[in-house]
Amino acid sequence: MDKLKARSSNRLKPLAAAALVIATGTTLRLAGYEAGLPYVVVKYGGSLLWGAMVYLLVTVALPARPRLGILLSLIIAIAVELFRLYHTPWLDAFRLTLAGALLLGRIFSVWNIVAYIVGIAVAAAIAGRRHR
Questions:
Q1: Which of 5, 10, 55, 116 has the maximum number of C-beta atoms within 10 A of its C-beta?
Q2: CA-CA distances (angstroms) from residue 84 to 11, 37, 59, 72, 100?
Q3: How far is the C-alpha of 132 from the C-alpha of 129, rounded, in Å?
Q4: Which among 102, 132, 128, 105 has a CA at the least distance from the CA of 14?
Q5: Could you tell me the pTM of the whole model?
Q6: Which residue ranges traverse the bilayer (predicted)?
Q7: Which runs of E-coded beta strand occur in 4-132?
């Protein structure tokens, strides 16, 4: 029974953290400019949080494999950014919606990849410290 509780806790904590990151990132993107935050903070802060979210969601699926979680998170984040280079009418129409902009983004940027890497690294470092 203790193993089941530990496994459940290993999945609930990153899931709760991911929900918090999603709420923070969405708020930052939707209200950051109105709050007077600089463009760099809103744009790349949101990207950093998006990278952290990807890591946290991957760790829900792979709680006992932190290194694999980091690698898979990097692959997913970079693939999503590279996917922005692919254009079709239906995909571009989806990218113009709020959900499309938040999930897939609109324009390719190497700086987004850098922000994702930082977000993944920060989330992994925090998770690593909590496990020790």
A1: 55
A2: 30, 26, 25, 19, 11
A3: 5
A4: 128
A5: 0.85
A6: 41-62, 69-87, 107-127
A7: none
